[in-house]
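Retry 2 of 3 after timeout on previous attempt. Resubmitting structure tokens to design endpoint.
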């Protein structure tokens, strides 16, 4: 055993003695140069790629009518937030996050420039069925309720800028139970969207033209309570409604939908034609809805009733719809929604 160990040790010594130190150094230098070249090349490619992407981004942005200054802002802060700059041009949510970074970073931010960018990209207003991205999207004169310590005050959005919103307290005069520094909640409803509850600390309170105004900071955080489970598409489709009169006779009515979602439809009947019909909440009816390339037949249940002028309008929820019809309806509603969004954005870009 000792002899074998001695042989191995002698072999190692012989190898060490025969190693050319210069050769080792050269090999190490070659490896170092290769590693340096690979790192340099990666950084070089990244630099070239970034310059190319920036040129492409500016070219795309110019198609929207954005100026070089506006594009520099969007590029700079999209890089700072690690957001895809091309998505910033296409979608409102990343755009607003990038703009907020610009506002927070630059005390001398140009508010007119921001408004210009929003208008050019079609982000100055959102459709009534789209959820809010931030409180900056609330329409002027939106009414709501201010809540403080279980007391409520009617309010309306009087004005807004990039940092703050200004709520007018309707038909109320001091003294108020709240003051600067207190946290209040404001609750308001967007008819085709949701109920919103926002919370903020009062920055200022003042009187202007006989109106008492409270100043609150904008926020991206709020409670959103959906009024409907699914998007409701306002569209007129032919629908045959089969129901019963109060004597139990079957009645068929040729009507049009007022709206449709993947869960139900709305339709209206002239008040005079509703007499004698069995159409209370919970009543089961049968629907035959006509599309361009298909008819859907399904039972439904009346869920809500309201009067609208000379009509009575009903909301009906589908019941036991076949999976094939359900899939068709989902694709139809989603497709129409996308058309609305595209048409809306095109309108805002070129109006």
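Retry 2 succeeded. Sequence:
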């Amino acid at each position: 055993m000792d002899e074998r160990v001695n042989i191995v040790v002698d072999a190692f010594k012989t190898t060490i003695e025969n190693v050319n130190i210069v050769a080792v150094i050269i090999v190490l230098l070659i490896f170092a140069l290769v590693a340096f070249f690979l790192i340099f090349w990666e950084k070089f490619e990244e630099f070239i790629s970034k310059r190319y992407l920036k040129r492409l981004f500016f070219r795309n942005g110019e198609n929207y009518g954005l100026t070089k200054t506006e594009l520099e802002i969007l590029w700079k802060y999209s890089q700072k937030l690690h957001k895809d700059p091309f998505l910033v041009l296409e979608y409102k949510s990343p755009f607003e996050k990038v703009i907020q970074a610009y506002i927070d970073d630059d005390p001398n931010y140009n508010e007119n420039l921001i408004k210009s960018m929003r208008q050019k990209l079609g982000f100055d207003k959102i459709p009534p069925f789209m959820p809010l991205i931030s409180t900056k999207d609330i329409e002027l004169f939106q009414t709501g309720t201010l809540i403080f310590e279980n007391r409520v005050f009617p309010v309306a959005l009087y004005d807004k800028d990039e940092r703050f919103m200004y709520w007018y307290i309707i038909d109320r005069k001091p003294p108020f139970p709240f003051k600067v520094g207190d946290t209040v909640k404001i609750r308001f409803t967007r008819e085709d969207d949701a109920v919103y509850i926002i919370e903020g600390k009062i920055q200022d309170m003042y009187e202007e033209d006989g109106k008492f105004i409270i100043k609150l900071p904008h926020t991206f955080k709020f409670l959103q309570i959906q009024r409907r489970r699914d998007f409701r598409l306002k569209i007129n489709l032919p629908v045959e409604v089969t129901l019963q009169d109060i004597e139990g006779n079957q009645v068929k009515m040729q009507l049009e939908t007022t709206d449709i979602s993947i869960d139900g439809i709305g339709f209206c009947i002239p008040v005079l034609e509703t007499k004698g019909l069995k159409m209370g909440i919970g009543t089961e009816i049968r629907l035959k809805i006509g599309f361009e390339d298909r008819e859907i037949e399904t039972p439904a249940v009346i869920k809500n009733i309201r009067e609208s002028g000379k009509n009575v309008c009903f909301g009906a929820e589908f019941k036991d719809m076949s999976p094939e019809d359900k899939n068709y309806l989902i694709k139809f509603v989603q497709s129409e929604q996308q058309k609305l969004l595209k048409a809306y954005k095109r309108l805002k870009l070129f109006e």
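Attempt log closed. The longest helix spans residues 21-63.
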